[in-house]
Design brief:
- The chain is of the alpha+beta class.
- It has two domains: 29 residues; 86 residues, Cupredoxins -  blue copper proteins (Immunoglobulin-like, Sandwich), CATH 2.60.40.
- The protein is 22% helix and 39% strand.
- Strands 3-9-8-5-6 form a five-stranded mixed beta sheet, with no helix packed on it. Strands 2-1-4-7 form a four-stranded mixed beta sheet, with no helix packed on it.
């Protein structure tokens, strides 16, 4: 009898743990939004979109220029990118506006900057 009670208790614990994992896994369906960013030697960025839902945003930055550029937003920055280099920068944004810039001296002042909105 003790063995049957023990097996039933073990099965109950296993079933509740499985239910908890399935319930938790099902609730985390949030996905990241990808924004393509192109850096150009005309000292500007071209973004595939100017806003995204708040949460995880992946900025896929490609330097199409011949001179080095980087991309900074929400306190995170890419490395300096050479011609045709691409890097991904993942940030988690709350609702609001976020300034982005190229931090190479003189580039932001010449226009390599903008505002991105998380909705």
């Amino acid at each position: 009898m003790k063995r049957i009670v023990s097996l039933v208790a073990t099965a109950a614990v296993a079933a509740s743990a499985l239910f908890a994992v399935v319930a938790y896994g099902g609730s985390s369906t949030a996905t990241a939004t990808t924004v393509k960013v192109t850096a150009k030697d005309t000292l500007r960025f071209v973004l595939s979109r100017k806003s995204a839902p708040h949460g995880k945003v992946i900025f896929k930055v490609t330097n199409k220029g011949r001179i080095k550029h980087d991309f900074k937003i929400a306190g995170k920055k890419t490395k300096l990118l050479k011609h045709n280099q691409t890097v991904s920068l993942t940030v988690t944004l709350k609702k609001g506006k976020y300034k982005y810039v190229c931090t190479v001296p003189g580039h932001a002042a010449a226009g390599m900057k903008g505002t991105f909105r998380a909705t």
